[in-house]
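Morning F.,

Quick status update on the modeling queue. The single chain you submitted on Monday has been processed. Sequence for confirmation:
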Amino acid sequence: MAFSSGSGGGSMSDINVTPLVDVMLVLLIIFMVTTPLMEQGIQVDLPRTKAQALTSQEQKLVLTVTKERRVYLGKTEIPEKELLQKLKANERVKKEREVYLHADQALPYGVVVNVMGVLKQAGVETLGMVTDPMGDAPP
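Structure tokens below.
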């Protein structure tokens, strides 16, 4: 008993893989171009206005900057000149590499960006922005 493929006896080796190779090369080029762009600047995951509150069993490390430009790590005030040194020496920063920034809205944008730069220099890889939830904000 002989089996026939029904379409002229073609085999599986007749499948054209050229379109697959083309797509894979395009994806490779896209990833090669975008990867260096992702490493530039300060990476921040911006919160959304309608985001749900974080539910966590453990307390997160919070860096607070008041409108008077006083900096607190947790509840301990840190002089601005010593911020980088204290962050690099902090065991939780070394271990978790995650900090939540709680900055007063009256602060100039440049002050917040400078603090974010110091956090990045200290080895922080994940930066959360603490905000107050808004009601029905426009999108």
